[in-house]
Design brief:
- With 346 residues, the chain is an alpha+beta fold.
- The chain is 40% helix and 20% strand.
- It has helices at 4-17, 23-30, 34-46, 76-89, 97-111, 114-125, 141-153, 225-236, 250-254, 281-291, 301-322, and strands spanning 51-54, 60-63, 157-162, 168-181, 184-191, 196-201, 205-207, 240-246, 263-266, 272-278, 295-299.
- The longest helix is centred in the C-terminal third of the chain and has 22 residues, at 301-322.
- The protein starts with a helix and ends in a 24-residue tail after the last helix.
Length: 346
């Protein structure tokens, strides 16, 4: 049988890994009597762990939330995962999280065994983050937490929202889910004033409590909310839309096309379909050309005309580039009637 200290650690590990345990199950796992389990639970409470107990045949023990954060027990893989997550948290677009992550990481690495510290150090030393495009506006972690709590509790949210030009509006919504995409955070919510689903950038949200009342959650606008938000930010938000068949497998296209640039779906093993948007069809031509894949336009027909216009413009430019310029023919600096080699003076 385990000694008291080892048994307490084992008991704490079980409570942290499972939502609720019956006294009999814990006694069986620890190889002790239910009475010993009750005494060990009391010891954990004295150490500051909020262990809740529910009476009756269906009752049991559950580790709850307390006023202070007690020590956590992590296995090797969990400790490495937390350390790596803290190292990368500074780049996730959450305001103020960088310094906090460094402090938490310093505490964790101080108690990591050498074997785990070497694993974390190797991941950090030999990993280079690839950040694409301009960095987004930071999200206040307090706002992010507030929105997550309102989603969880099904409570209405009142907030001020700044549009692309910075103009503020007051909104009241039923928040459903938070979606993180391309280093930005989005809130999917039912807009009560517009009687429809809307997607809001969290960095443009300023909560204006009091919130509430509670509401009955609605059926979400899509099963895959990540794909729903991707369509919204890459297609629906723009004036011009197109559907394009890329002549490369889905996995290859996904390496170059981010969720914020368009949505992809497989079309057989050797092709995929891209749905995207842009401010205009001319801008979309540039966007598609920069991707660098062979493609076929499925819709709209006007996009084909925009491609033809770009082709004709490039062709004319190429033709002019292959013809000798007046300067190359020696005529750029000559005035008609002036002998070659003579200066024309006005």
């Amino acid at each position: 049988m385990l000694d008291t200290s080892a048994r307490l650690l084992r008991l704490l590990s079980l409570l942290q890994a499972h939502r609720e345990w019956s006294g009999a199950d814990l006694a069986d796992r620890l190889g002790v009597t239910p009475r010993t389990v009750r005494r060990d639970i009391d010891r954990l409470r004295e150490l500051g762990y909020p262990v809740n107990a529910s009476p009756g045949t269906g009752g049991g023990y559950q580790l709850g939330a307390g006023a202070e954060l007690p020590p956590l027990l992590l296995d090797d893989d969990e400790a490495v995962a937390v350390a790596v997550g803290l190292r990368t948290a500074a780049g996730q677009g959450i305001e103020g999280i960088g310094e906090t992550s460094v402090r938490a990481l310093a505490k964790l690495e101080q108690v990591l065994p050498n074997r785990l510290r070497r694993r974390v150090g190797a991941l950090h030393a030999f990993t280079v983050p690839m950040l694409r495009g301009p960095q987004p506006s930071a999200v206040d972690p307090a706002v992010l937490t507030e929105l997550a709590n309102l989603c969880r509790d099904a409570e209405r949210l009142r907030f001020e929202y700044r549009d692309h030009d910075g103009a503020p509006t007051r909104r009241t919504v039923e928040p459903h889910r938070l979606v993180c995409s391309e280093r930005r955070w989005y809130l999917v919510a039912w807009d009560l004033d517009r009687d429809d689903w809307r997607t809001f950038r969290v960095d443009r949200i300023t909560p204006r409590p009091p919130h509430g009342p509670r509401f009955a959650p609605r059926t979400p606008p899509a099963e895959d909310l990540a794909a729903y938000v991707s369509r919204g930010v890459s297609t629906r938000a723009y004036a011009s839309h197109a559907v394009i068949r890329l002549l490369v497998p889905l996995h290859e296209a996904a390496e170059r096309i981010s969720p914020s640039a368009g949505t992809l779906e497989a079309d057989g093993d050797a092709a995929c379909v891209l749905r995207t948007g842009a401010a205009s069809l001319d801008v979309m031509v540039l966007h598609i050309m920069m991707i660098g894949f062979e493609f076929e336009v499925l819709e709209p027909a006007e996009f084909i005309e925009a491609i033809r216009g770009a082709r004709d413009l490039l062709s004319r430019s190429l033709e002019r580039g292959t013809s000798p310029s007046p300067r190359a023919r020696g005529g750029a600096d000559r005035t008609p009637g002036t002998p070659s080699g003579s200066a024309a003076v006005s």
